[in-house]
Each structure stands twice: as C-alpha cells, then as structure tokens.
Amino acid sequence: MTNNNALQQALKQYFGYDSFRAGQREIIEANLAGQDTLAIMPTGGGKSICFQLPALLKTGVTIVVSPLIALMQDQVTALKENGIGATFLNSTLSGRESNQRSQAILNGAIKLIYVAPERLFAEQFIEFLNIVKNKIGIAGFAIDEAHCVSEWGHDFRPEYRQLKQIRQLYPDVPVIALTATATERVRADISQQLELKQPYIHIASFNRNNLYYEVVPKQGTEKSYVDLLRQIKKNQGSGIVYCLSRKRVNEIAERLREDGIEAIPYHAGLTPKQREENQTRWIRDDVQVMVATIAFGMGINKPDVRFVIHYDLPKNIEGYYQESGRAGRDGEDSHCTLFLGYQDLETIKYLIAQKVDPYTNEPLEAEQRIAQQQLRQVVDYAEGLACRRTILLRYFGEHFHGDCANCDNCLTPKPMDDWTVEAQKFLSCVARVKERFGLGQIIDILRGSLNKKILQHGHENLSTHGIGKDRSLDEWRQLARSLIHQGFLTQTTDGYAILKLNDRSWEVMRGQRNVLLPIVREVESAPVPERHDVSERPVDIDILFERLRLLRKNLADEQEVPPYVIFSNATLNQMAEQQPTSRKDFANLSGVGAKKLEQYADDFIALILEHHLKYPPAEPSEADNTKVTQESITPKSKLSKASTQRETLAMYENGLDIDEIARDRKLKPATVWTHLVQLVEAGYAINLDRLVPPDRQSIIYEALEAIGGDSLRNLFDHLREEYTYDEIKIVRAIWQNEKDPL
User: Which CATH architecture has domain 416-519?
Assistant: First the structure.
C-alpha cells in the first residue's frame, strides 16, 4: 500500500496538484489494493486521475476502455504532456503505427493503453494482451463512460455489453468503472454487467456549484434566435449550442456567423473528416461556438466551456445533466440555459414513435413508454418553479435542501402560497387508489371527472372524488410536480409513472409538514439579476493574464494540441495573480508538475519579467527579502542579459537568422519565433523586414483589418495557407500594439 505522503508526491509530480479532490484518494487507495471499484463522479470531478495515478504506481499496464476515438486521443495527449507513457490503439492507425506502439508497450515504455470495446475482444488483440500479461503484467482495467453498459443509461452501447468477458478472461485483474451520471438502477446494472466483485462504490455529489441553471421560453423563431444571440454575447468565452436536428444545427451556425459569432456545426451528416476538423478547431479555441446535435460531446475534455445552451428540448434529464455538465469543468462560473418550446415536444414524440424492432418493425413499446416518461420529466424540470438543483439532484437520488442561489428560480423566486390542504387532498387520493395509478387519474378524481377510466375502476365512489373542483387542471399538475420535486411523493421510473407515498407524504397528511407552492403571476416577470459578484483586480493583472493566454495559445498551436493541455485557465489566473519569477515559485502553481515545469517555466517566467518592465511589482518588505535566496532564481529566468528572450534578441540584432539562433542556443526554431513575438508584444522595436518581407507584411495587415486578430486559424485560412503561422503571429503582435498601445 502506498502511504499518504507518497500519493501526494506522485499527484504533484505527474499532475501538478497539491491535494486530492473529494473521493479521489479513497478510490485510488481501493484501486491500489486490488479492489474492484465503481466511481460515480460528476463531470469535472476528476475521474481520470482515479485510474491514471494508480496505473503509474502499479506494476504492468492499465487497459482503459473508452467509447470514442476523440476521447482517447485527448487523454493520451494530456498524459504525454505530463511526461506519462500512454498510447491508444484504434482504427485511425496504420499497420506500421500499430506495430510501433505495440513494441513500445512490450518494451515497458507505456503505462496506459486506450482501446475501444470492439477492439478489446478481437482475437488478435487478446493474443497480444496475453503476451503483455506474461511479459509486462496487466495492472487493471478501467471502463470509462461506464453508463454505456446499461440499457437503463442515457447512452447505451451494445458493444459495451461484451465487457463482462474481462472477468472471464482475466478473473484476478481488478476493474474500475467510472461515469459521471448513473441512477441507482444504472449503478446496479453496471456492477452486474461487469461482474464487479464486492466493489468499493463511491458516489460523489452530483451538485455542480459553479453552474447557473435557467430556463427561457421559446417565443417564435425570430424572437428565440435573438434571445440565443443575446445569451452567447452575454456569456462570452467558449460554448456549445445543442439542437435536435441537423437542419437546425446548420441554420443556427450560419446565422451566428452572419452576426459576427465564430460558430461551426457538428452532426452526423458531416463527413468524419469535417467533424474531426470542426471539433479540433473548437477545442483549440480557433472558433468560439460549437452548434451540434447530441452526437457531440461525450468524452470532450475541454475544461473552459463557459456556457451550454439547449436551444431545443433535451430528451431526458440524465442526458441534459451530462450535456449541460460540459460547462465549467475547470470550476469557474458557467451558464446552462434550456429553451422551453412546446413545439419541440412533438418532434421528440415523433422520434420516440420510431423506436421499432429492426427485425420485425414492430414498436418497442417498453422502450417507447420509458422514453415518454423521461420526456415528461424534462418538461417537469423546465416548468418547475422549485430550485433547479433540487429537481436535478433528486433525479439521481440526492436530496438538496434550501436555496441554491445560482438558478433562475432561486434568484427570482415567485411568491409562495400555502397549499398544504390541497396537498393533503392529493396525497389522500393517492392512498385511496392504493398507489396504483398515475398523476392524470388522481387529478381526474379530484376534479370530479366521470370519464370511462374513472367509472371502470369505481373511482367516482371515492370520498376524494370531486373535492378539488375549485382548482384548475394546470394548478393540480403544478402541485403534483412540486410534491415530487420536494420529495413529498415518489414516481416509479419503469415507464408507467405510478405515484407512490413515502414517509414525508404521511407527515404532510398528518399535518406535521406544510407544503408551499410558488405561484406564477404575469406581473412578476422580473429580469434575472447578475448572479455572480465579479471581484475587482488590478488592470495590469488582466493584461498579464491575456498575454499569458496568448503565449499558451502560441505554444499550443506549435505543438498542435489544445491550449488547456498546456495549462488550464485556473493555472493562468493563479500565474497572473502570483507572478512567479523563479522556478521554485512556478512549481508551486496548481497544475504544474515536473514535466511542465521543465518544459514551460522559462517561457512563462520570461513573459512575467517582461511584464514587470511596464508594471513593476510592489517592493517586497525587508522580511520578504530575507526569504529570497540566490538559488531560488534560475539563470534562465533572471531579468538580465541572460534572460532567454533578451539573449535571442541580442543574437538577432547581431545579424543571426532564426535557424542560426536556434542552432547556437540548442532551441527549436519555433521557440525562437515565440521569443521574438513575445518581445514585440512587450513593446520592443524589432526589424521585422528580416523576418517577413514588407510586401507580405502588407497583405497580412490587410487580412487583420478585414477579419480581426482573434483567430490565427481564420487568418491562416483567409490568407489561403500561403503565409506561415509564425509570420502571421509576429505581424499580428505589431498590429495589436498599434491598435491597443499600452
């Protein structure tokens, strides 16, 4: 068993974090002890580290089963960036590439292997795994997105069912299953399907405190689009807009582009190459908004998504939670908006009706019934007047009490009326029909209906028949939804939606609890206030943050990786506020491990020191000075002629070209270009003509004036790929200085 200090040190060394998130340590310890594990953690909760860290500390390789190629590639890229031996084996590789990776595995250079479920049980791959087991050892299996194994999950995948073979083929190898969303029924199904042996089960809270939830009514095509555009402009940052159909995706993406929003589509009607290119452009911050069907998103690891908008109604609560949860994985404030349009109901009902047996073409009535109930739950959420979190979390069996202060219903609460008497009537009626009917029948009884179903069951003879005539159908529906949301009533989830009483129901009927119901009145449609206080910080810190962000983007473009793989926004914010000028201080930033310290510290420290030329930091006190030792500052990061950027500048001014500087300083030419771009951004005058001929500068200037400088990719495309990224970046730096001189 690895002791606590060793785990903490490994976490910092490999991932740059000083402490574990809630539940991570316990899951990792169970994994290291060889115990099967089921981990239910919300998106952004840190699931990956729960199997990645043990993989690095155990003998042998860990096999990670992942449903999507994009997810594999993303996680492997991030692991390599942290200096961790990881690879994926999938259909995108040539035979030669597969052989090279297989050899690296057998040579012991790899600790994590990502594979798709269909590849895992191919005869040839099983033979290879057996060789690996005998030569290297298999430390464990990690089943990512494990809800895919369950027919009750929101994204069931038949190929996941075969994963039970893991237990038969490798009975002594521990298995960890991980997912962000799973109801109690799905959790039980995962354990059964994967044949987990007495697993350690960790269920984290499903509450995402940083997400703001709201529902906006759809009011006609044009008005709704204007509302959508306003939402995007208000939230800024990177975002996703979900639509039901490919046609709607294309329409919205095109209109957003016409209105100055960089938006691209994603749906199954695009070619695989188009989907991959669009996804890559969005992940790398070359465009702001991805407009997509729900085919997009599973496994997307982008942490800095600032908003998710469901322009059309989602099909079920679990899917909505998963999709909206792609916002704010970095823990920063993010916005989740659902547009409620009743016309969407008909579209979804039509899609549900298409659920037929592929062999007999007969309706799959059980699946249709469950899908219809799931759709009703979405409408209940959207129409609900209780705290949005209370409704969402109750779906997963978690009780949330009180005002969340971060949803529309809590920030603009409706007036509350006492509906205890009506609630007692409703619950009493549920009891008198022996808890065998749904919401509609109960309301019909209360309102005194004499329809066929009432007469068939003799419900006209009940004492509760007709005692609710004074309330409208909508009022009774609203009360019923509220009773369910507040936990005073239970509804079965088998597709029939039968109402059941619980302990809290009887407390209401005995007068031990009051039931308050928010009432909608048209005169009280107050605008949603600003939900978060924005802390004021000095302008120079914001300027530094933007420069750090640009440096990160330049480095990411050079390496063809997403910016967040280098550092998260949270790390950049911390960097801008603390402004470390030594490697020792830089290493203390959250998200800076050993590999990233070595690879990036000097570039970022140099930029911070250049920033200090224009914005000198406050003089440290005498007590602080005694803490600073000569050893704490590396030669590369001193603000002197030995500064890495100044050394590059001196060599350039002495007539050396890019390749000569790179050769003499043992740097990549791309790094030399980056130094020169940073120097220009810091206000240094550089003879640009030696780098970019004047005629080429003029054309790049024209492009910048035409489309702006926000997206390198757009500039590159606009210039028909005839100018390099380095040329564009350095001309853009001068152009931006002219536009916004410090």
Answer: Orthogonal Bundle (1.10)
